[in-house]
């Protein structure tokens, strides 16, 4: 037990280097095999192609007319008209820039969705690591419970103890067995979830320790460096950029539109042909469209500022939570590194200084402390993962 506790305490030092590569290997595998991400990538490609449509000038129009004359000596008439319409020239430049901005938005959307999938995987990895650590302890506890139960069964068979004392050890053994079985169910459930996220491929990496994380000493400096990695924050900024570009496009679309073409008329051997030029006069159709887009931009700017504030506050809370948990964890580490009540209790029990019931009660208190340490360690790393996701 002492060796196991000592190995747990060292989980922040020696094992963290290997654990980091183990976590990263799992995440890299999920990013490559996750079917949701594959579908999202294909959708992103389709959206980018869609954003590139409608950037060119409208299709030309061809009109042909054949009119029969009456009476017969009037002759027949043939008309041909070919026209091409144009928006105001700057509109095409704004359309192209808007399409580029939308493609940037598509990339940011995919990046955010990718981060959400990988964050879910990180949380599962932390929980799996916790359950594996618990499994090692529960396996050791079951071993002790079996030894104790077997010893008391022998004493009962020899008539040295009564059935009540023997049954206490059997109940203790049953409790240890069920705790381990429940733990194994949890491990298999988490592995199944990771397999699902990995496109049905089993995760073979051993996650028996947490990843390394250099806790930032100054939140403000750290936040400046990581806020640019927030896809949602970048999306909010991109929405403002696109809204401003839409303003420019709306203004250009409200400018006069042009059309030019060729027209011809044939009747009684006479041919009339020439060019036509037209222009639309923007009086009523585009009323309030630019004003509406400006108001939309202002609203998006306010939403962006609000999200930036909310994001900072949320991250600040996560930072403080992780920091406080790190202090609690160090207190547990210091206590467990200098005490090993299980050995002392076993020694006192062997010497007859503790009754069976007192021994089991004291051992349960010690086990509860170790379990609380592992829970705190898990909670700390769950809080850390919330910070870590913005560093890459």
Brief rundown of the structure:
This protein has 392 residues and is α+β, with helices and mostly antiparallel strands.
Describe this entry's structure for a reader:
A hairpin with a 2-residue loop joins strand 3 (258-267) and strand 4 (270-279). This protein is elongated. The protein starts with a helix and ends with a helix. It has helices at 2-9, 14-33, 35-51, 90-157, 163-197, 219-226, 231-253, 289-338, 341-350, 356-388; strands at 61-67, 77-86, 258-267, 270-279. It has 392 residues and is an alpha+beta fold. Strands 1-2-3-4 form a four-stranded antiparallel β-sheet, with no helix packed on it. The longest helix is centred in the N-terminal third of the chain and has 68 residues, at 90-157. The chain is 69% helix and 9% strand. Helix 9 runs antiparallel to helix 10 (356-388).
Q: What is the topological layout?
A:
Layout: H1 2-9, H2 14-33, H3 35-51, E1 61-67, E2 77-86, H4 90-157, H5 163-197, H6 219-226, H7 231-253, E3 258-267, E4 270-279, H8 289-338, H9 341-350, H10 356-388
Helix pairs in contact: 2-4, 3-4, 4-5, 4-7, 4-10, 7-8, 8-10, 9-10
């Amino acid at each position: 037990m002492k060796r196991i506790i000592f190995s747990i305490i060292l989980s922040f030092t020696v094992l963290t280097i290997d654990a980091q590569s183990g976590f990263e290997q799992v995440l890299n595998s999920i990013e490559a095999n996750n079917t949701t991400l594959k579908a999202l990538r294909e959708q992103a490609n389709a959206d980018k192609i869609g954003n590139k449509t409608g950037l060119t000038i409208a299709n030309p129009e061809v009109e042909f007319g054949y009119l029969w004359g009456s009476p017969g000596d009037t002759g027949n008439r043939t008309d041909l008209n070919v026209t091409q319409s144009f928006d105001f020239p700057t509109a095409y430049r704004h359309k192209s820039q808007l399409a580029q901005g939308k493609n940037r938005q598509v990339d940011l959307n995919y990046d955010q969705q990718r981060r959400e999938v990988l964050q879910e995987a990180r949380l599962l990895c932390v929980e799996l690591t916790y359950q594996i650590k618990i499994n090692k302890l529960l396996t050791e506890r079951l071993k002790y419970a079996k030894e104790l139960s077997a010893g008391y069964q022998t004493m009962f068979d020899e008539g040295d103890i009564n059935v009540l004392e023997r049954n206490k050890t059997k109940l203790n053994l049953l409790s240890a067995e069920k705790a381990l079985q429940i733990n194994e169910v949890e491990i298999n459930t988490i592995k199944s979830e990771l397999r699902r996220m990995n496109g049905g491929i089993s995760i073979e990496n051993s996650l028996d320790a947490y990843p390394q994380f250099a806790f930032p000493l100054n939140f403000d400096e750290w936040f400046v460096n990581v806020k640019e990695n927030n896809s949602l924050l970048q999306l909010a900024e991109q929405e403002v950029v696109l809204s401003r570009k839409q303003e420019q496009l709306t203004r250009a679309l409200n400018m006069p539109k042009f059309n030019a073409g060729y027209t011809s008329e044939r009747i009684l051997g006479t041919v009339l042909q020439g060019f036509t030029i037209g222009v639309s006069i923007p009086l009523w159709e585009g009323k309030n469209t630019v004003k509406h887009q400006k108001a939309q931009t202002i609203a998006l700017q306010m939403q962006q500022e609000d999200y930036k504030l909310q994001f900072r506050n949320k991250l600040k809370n996560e930072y403080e939570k992780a920091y406080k948990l790190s202090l609690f964890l160090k207190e547990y580490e210091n206590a467990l590194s200098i005490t090993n009540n299980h050995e002392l209790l076993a020694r006192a029990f062997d010497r007859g200084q503790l009754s069976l019931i007192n021994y089991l009660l004291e051992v349960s208190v010690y086990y509860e402390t170790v379990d609380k340490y592992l829970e705190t360690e898990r909670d700390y790393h769950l809080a850390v993962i919330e910070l870590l996701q913005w560093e890459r």
